[in-house]
Specification:
Chain lengths: 486, 462
């Protein structure tokens, strides 16, 4: 693979590129699903190709190809340079890149059990057995299960002399029980909705999730939602479960801190951000107990945003995003770092595959644990709604106003978890919401959740991000707004 | 070991391969499969060349091109099927993929409902390949972008957007003699014009890039952006709304999977228990029609069945669903040619929706509205309730208060929580249907609509 990298870099240099970096990526994916007791999807995909990014005439060009031959990669590199020269027709200033040393390295992400070595019948057997456990619960009308495994090798080289190979295994699984009754559809998922839990790792995730041990419980909760009372419309105290808080972090912290959004580069599609540059080190983003980091390093945990180097060859870092409630840092790249006075990129450029341009993406944007046990937090709460497992999410294009709904909720009355509520939802303004946080659970409850489906960019790129979170409490939150006026 | 190559007529990079090359790849796989005694094999060969020029802050900041070809193989042996997809097209890799498909499939329980692959079919031809769009160069896209950026600069505004173009072709063949082929071009110009803290947007999409005018789209967005200054904050509540086609598309587009027979059988469709009953307004008629002149996409489905025109909603009543071969057999209906590639758990869906239009122009809708809101575009739409089809989302890039038949001023963006079913019962006026492009749903043919009692629940800060 290095030969293809070097050949394309040489062609780019010859054609006039001032800088070039290239990624050869080999992507293997296995997808398994079941529905209603039979196999749904069963497939495996392999993709191998090369993408080269160049600066020529002071502007960017990118081209990609699956023709891994000397002729194919040369033609691709030449195309990237030609595109860059066309870009220069509409440039305002030459591209500037923050300095970065040359790195020669190889890194293997954590993986105890290679999921591609586990027989398909073992994997399908587990899914079908869990599917059967859910179907045994009376009132369940649809059952679904899934597993997804990926193995991604990346060979990165740059004209500055870097040569980095990384191998990452990504694994995920989830189960869903659905019940249609009367005029309502209710759903419960485990360990999370929209594909379940995903990590950087192997089949050990599937075993750790104990899908069989949770199947009956979520199916019974699903059926129980039908007669449960509707979540009331009120303004009050909200406790969020860890997975829902992970998505709240993703939408109302992770996206606003992307520097390309802040600078208007995503204005046409993903949107911009309320976090304009004047707010750095000045905005009271959250209450003083809130500390958020964007940490791509292995020591943060095996998240979907964990790596050794980003896709422009910058080592993984930990960025303080919110420190004691104050806004401290953006997600940056080599091109944008200087705009916020940084000498070096924050190392957050990531690409979905060989045919996509690296762009600023979340790594593991995590809320650091607080000091409460969940039991003590509930006991300390007089009147609240505890919501868990996302059902829908939406936020405006500057990341101010959001609304989330979850699959399930419980009333908290007099320090005790009481009756179940259906159709829960809450909404708010990002900074008002985070400033209302008055309790965060401790490390015993902290989970590094994986969001495998974050979409951004044109052409669209789907990326996995990590979000460590433990349950937390928020005051004076608008609750039940999604169903108000219906 | 050096991989054996399949003989292809021409080298890649410059353009799509000749169609016969894709047939040769498919034939090669089928030949190997037959030699190995595999009872049934299906091969999809898909090639695409795409390019996209992206701009922001009145300059190009991303500019990309890609070329790829994938071969996707499904085998079926004794009621067991699986799919393997690869972009490595030497004969050894394809042979390995074929073996892998059989191996994957063999490790699952037998599926008594798995149907034999379909035989040869006949397709009504479509012509959606425009050589001029296929050959659109990065310089041509960059020059169009430059004009939009210059317009923005003249107006003191900031432009952001994309100009993309591409071409693709697909061949589908199976061991029972089915052969299908399709090629198309596509182009999109999308532009956001920012004027201070205000913004507006316009977008065009077609098989032939000459069907839209990037400069005209930029001017529309620029003019609306100028009008979007100093928005007033209105109280949340129920309003009459005039939805431009992109806004209609992005809401109605969320209904597409509800028309799947499999979704109804699984009791997860909002039409479960409602087929044949009056559900929407009498003025709402929806078909799925791949042959509509403003549609794109192949005239066959994932198994190679010809796509039929299906009347889904007739004057407010859901009349028909779409069927794959499997769901059709279970429901004792005929397949409509809307199945996804197998194996999958979702069945089928209509992907060429056409919502019948009316005769009221957008301007007439505004002129006849006493008080309402003109909505340019919606954003981040998600499902709150699947059976009542309550969707939430935001207005974006141009929300205007209409009073006494005139646009009075811009309004701050609202969050909505609105049942799409209720919305389609409250349609007062319809404009001419057109191919609309949004960001939440695939492009479809929809009209602008005036709708009463649209529910806005909260307001944001801009």
């Amino acid at each position: 693979m290095w030969d293809y990298c070097e050949h394309s870099l040489e062609t780019a240099r010859f054609r006039g590129a001032r800088y070039a970096d290239v990624r050869v990526m080999h992507h293997r994916q296995r997808d398994l699903t079941s529905k209603g007791g039979r196999v749904g999807t069963l497939g495996q995909t392999e993709s191998l190709g090369l993408g080269i990014r160049v600066v020529a005439s002071g502007a960017w060009g990118f081209a990609s190809t699956d023709q891994l031959t000397p002729e194919g990669v040369s033609a691709c590199a030449a195309q990237a340079v030609a595109i860059a020269k066309a870009s220069a027709l509409a440039k305002k200033e030459d591209v500037q890149l923050a300095p970065e040393g040359a790195h020669i390295d190889s890194w293997l992400g954590p993986c105890i059990k290679d999921p591609f070595e586990i027989p398909i019948d073992t994997q399908l057997g587990l899914l079908l057995s869990v599917d059967g456990l859910m179907r045994k619960v009376k009132g369940i009308t649809l059952t679904e299960t899934d597993m997804q495994f990926r193995k991604i090798d990346t060979w990165f080289a740059s004209s500055a002399g870097s040569k980095i190979h990384q191998r990452r295994f990504l694994s995920g699984c989830g189960i869903v029980a659905t019940s249609f009754k009367g005029d309502a559809i209710q759903k419960r998922s485990y360990p999370n909705s929209f594909g379940g839990q995903h990590i950087l790792g192997g089949y050990e995730l599937i075993e750790a999730m104990d899908l069989p041990g949770n199947a009956q419980r979520i199916a019974e909760e699903c059926v129980a939602l039908h007669p449960a009372p509707q979540c009331p419309e009120t303004t009050g105290t909200l406790i969020l479960g860890g997975s829902q808080l992970g998505l709240q972090i993703h939408e109302s912290v992770g996206h606003p801190i992307e520097l390309d959004r802040v600078l208007g580069q995503e204005a046409n599609f993903a949107g911009t951000s309320f976090l304009t540059l004047d707010k750095l080190h000045k905005l009271r983003y959250a209450s003083p107990i809130v500390n958020v980091v964007a940490d791509a390093r292995a020591e943060h945990g095996p998240g979907l945003g964990t790596f050794a180097y980003d896709d422009e060859g910058v080592p993984a870092q930990c960025i303080e995003v919110i420190k004691d409630g104050e806004f401290h840092g953006y997600l940056s790249s080599r091109e944008t770092a200087h705009l916020i006075g940084l000498a070096r990129s924050g190392g957050t450029m990531r690409t979905e595959g060989w045919n996509r341009l690296p762009m600023i993406r979340m790594t593991n944007v995590s809320l650091l644990p607080g000091r409460w046990s969940l039991e003590d937090l509930i006991a300390d709460t007089e009147d609240a709604v505890l919501m868990d497992t996302n059902r829908s999410w939406s936020i405006d294009d500057r990341r101010y106003q959001f609304q989330f709904s979850t699959e399930i909720a419980w009333e908290i009355k007099g320090g005790k978890k009481s009756r179940m509520l259906k159709n829960p939802s809450y909404s708010g303004i990002t900074t008002e919401f985070w400033n209302s946080c008055d309790a965060i659970c401790n490390a015993d409850h902290w989970v590094l959740w994986g969001t495998p489906n974050c979409g951004k960019g044109q052409p669209m790129q789907v990326m996995g991000t990590g979000h460590g979170a433990s349950p937390a409490r928020f005051r004076n939150v608008k609750i039940g707004t999604a169903f108000s006026g219906q | 070991m050096k991989a054996r190559k399949i003989k292809l007529a021409s080298p890649p990079i410059a353009g799509l391969r000749p169609e016969r090359d894709l047939h040769a790849i498919a034939a090669s796989v089928l030949r190997i499969a037959k030699a190995r005694g595999i009872p049934e094999t299906e091969v999809h060969v898909d090639e695409s060349i795409d390019a996209l020029t992206r701009f922001a802050n009145n300059a190009i900041h991303q500019h990309v091109a890609e070329h790829g070809l994938t071969v996707s193989i499904r085998t079926a042996v004794d009621g067991r099927t699986a799919r393997v997809t690869t972009n490595r097209i030497d004969e050894d890799s394809l042979s390995a993929a074929l073996n892998h498909s059989v191996s994957l499939g063999s490790q699952q329980p037998k599926d008594p409902g798995l149907l034999p692959m379909p035989g040869r079919q006949r397709y009504r031809p479509v012509r959606r390949f425009h050589p001029r769009t296929a050959s659109l160069s990065p310089e041509e896209r960059a020059r169009a972008v430059k004009k939009a950026c210059e317009l923005a600069a003249r107006k003191g505004q900031v432009a952001a957007g994309i100009f993309s173009s591409g071409q693709s072709q697909s061949v589908l063949a199976n061991s029972r003699g089915l052969q299908a082929a399709y090629r198309q071009t596509h182009a999109t110009f999308s532009v956001t014009m920012q004027a201070g803290s205000a913004a507006s947007w316009a977008k065009g999409n077609a098989a032939d890039h000459r069907e839209f005018d990037p400069q005209a789209l930029a001017e529309t967005a620029s003019e609306k952006s100028s009008r979007a200054q100093n928005p007033v904050e209105l109280e949340p509540g129920r309003y009459t709304v005039i939805l431009e086609p992109a806004a209609v598309l992005d809401l109605v587009g969320f209904l597409f999977y509800d028309f799947a027979a499999t979704a109804v059988a699984d009791k997860r469709s909002c039409f479960s228990g409602r087929v044949g009953k009056p559900l929407l307004g009498k003025n709402v008629t929806i078909t799925d029609d791949v042959h509509h002149p403003e549609q794109l996409g192949p005239p066959f489905d994932g198994e190679g069945m010809p796509r039929q025109r299906v009347l889904l909603v007739d004057q407010g009543t859901v009349k028909n669903l779409v069927y794959s071969r499997r769901s059709a057999q279970q429901a004792k209906k005929k397949p409509t040619g809307h199945g996804f590639t197998l194996p999958n758990e979702y069945g089928e869906a209509p992907v060429n929706l056409v919502v019948a239009g009316g005769k009221t122009s957008l301007e007439e809708m505004i002129a006849t509205t006493e008080r309402g809101l003109l909505v340019t575009r919606l954003w981040y739409i998600r499902e709150v309730d699947p059976y009542e089809k309550i969707m939430t989302g935001m207005t974006r890039d141009g929300l205007f208060l209409v009073e006494s038949g005139k646009i009075r001023h811009a309004a701050r963006n609202f969050r909505f929580n609105q049942s799409v079913l209720e919305m389609l019962r409250n349609v007062e006026r319809l404009g001419p249907a057109e191919r609309a492009a949004g960001e939440e749903a695939s492009e479809m043919v929809v009209p602008p609509m005036r709708i009463r009692d649209f529910h806005f629940s909260e307001v944001t800060k801009f």
